[in-house]
Design brief:
Blueprint (H helix, E strand, L loop, with lengths): L7 H4 L3 H9 L2 H14 L7 E4 L6 H8 L3 E6 L2 H10 L5 E5 L10 E6 L9 H14 E11 L3 H7 L3 E6 L2 E10 L4 E10 L2 E10 L3 H11 L1 E7 L14 E7 L1
Helix pairs in contact: 3-4, 6-8
């Protein structure tokens, strides 16, 4: 099974949304928001852009800490969740492509939840350029991804079963070296029926990602392997790249 072009336009529906809503533990959200607040220099009144924001788990926490938040996501269902959960907070959520961002200038931006590299090189570059355009000079950007080659190729599991609130999910992966792409196939077992989905992710070496960021107008200030702040290295579970708009 191969993902269609622009697979992400139709992927985030049904059991995928149910999984997203229950997947991340609150402790991880708190740790990531603590890390972001420190590294991005967030304070009360800071204007921050969260894209793609999903159901707003990070954006809403930033708003609770006094930031003025804008969240962008392609999923109307997740944006509806975010709007409902953020009532009374200084947060605005809109349905839009992650390359079509609101006018800035923002003090900071973040891309969390392993939501980078869904597109081809041109699309990923366009996203980073859009983030840079939305930031003020010297504004900071936190890019988190578990799709760097240093992570993917040292932690690749071909087949794994997960269970979320009674739903079984089979996750199968394969790496395509010629395209530098990771193919993920998902099967959700629900009431005896299997809902199958496929996604394709661009896998970059850290060096390649740094070059992509530089081309968009960013300088990497810090590369951590987790929200604990440890250095990113071969085998790290993910990358948290703190960038400055130059």
């Amino acid at each position: 099974m191969n993902p269609k072009n622009n697979w992400y336009n139709s992927f985030f529906t049904g059991p995928v949304l149910d999984t997203i809503r229950s997947l991340m533990p609150p402790a991880l959200t708190q740790a990531e928001c603590d890390f972001a607040s420190s590294e991005l220099g967030l304070a009360k009144g800071s204007r921050i852009l969260d894209v793609p924001c999903g159901a707003g788990r990070h954006a809403i926490e930033f708003a609770r800490r006094g930031c003025r938040v804008s969240g962008i996501d392609l999923s109307p269902d997740l944006i509806a969740d975010a709007r409902k959960a953020s009532e009374g907070l200084d947060a605005d959520f809109r349905v839009a492509d992650m390359r079509e961002l609101p006018a800035g200038p923002f003090d900071a931006a973040c891309c969390l939840g392993n939501s980078f590299a869904y597109m081809d090189d041109a699309g990923n570059a366009a996203f980073l350029a859009a983030i840079r355009s939305a930031l003020r000079p010297g504004g900071r950007f936190l890019l988190q991804t578990s799709l760097c080659a240093e992570t993917v190729l040292t932690n690749l599991k071909s087949r794994t079963w997960y269970e979320f609130d009674g739903t079984l999910m089979l996750h199968e992966t394969r790496y395509e070296p010629a395209q530098g792409r990771l193919i993920s196939e998902y099967g959700f077992l629900i009431d005896g029926h299997i809902d199958r989905r496929a996604a394709g992710y661009r896998v970059y070496l850290y060096r390649e990602l740094a070059q992509l960021l530089a081309s968009a107008g960013f300088r990497i200030m810090k590369a951590s392997g987790s929200p604990a702040g440890d250095d990113f290295k071969l085998g790290s579970p993910g990358l948290y790249a703190v960038c400055e708009a130059v």
